[in-house]
Amino acid sequence: xxxxxxxxxxxxxxxxxxxxxxxxxxxxxxxxxxxxxxxxxxxxxxxxxxxxxxxxxxxxxxxxxxxxxxxxxxxxxxxxxxxxxxxxxxxxxxxxxxxxxxxx
Length: 104
Known about the structure:
Elements: H1 3-7, E1 10-18, E2 24-29, E3 39-45, E4 56-60, E5 63-71, H2 77-81, H3 85-90
Parallel strand pairs: 1-5
Antiparallel strand pairs: 1-2, 2-3, 4-5
């Protein structure tokens, strides 16, 4: 592994979770691209925050000198084919985030 490879930002796929009994949301990295462990990143208040604003490059908790890019996982072909009533139900009136972060 060359020096350039060590400094490259790697993608980290996340899911949005809320902390039960609170209004706090977290982006959960299921498997860190550097250490393989699970990491949490605050996404804001359930009622007032837009968790999408917290996606992007952030320091990895296991090594703050290295960055990873918080990204939503790619959609599968089956997910891309869904539409109609299900898609409309997942979006709010403005087409933004609803509930715990489902975005159509």
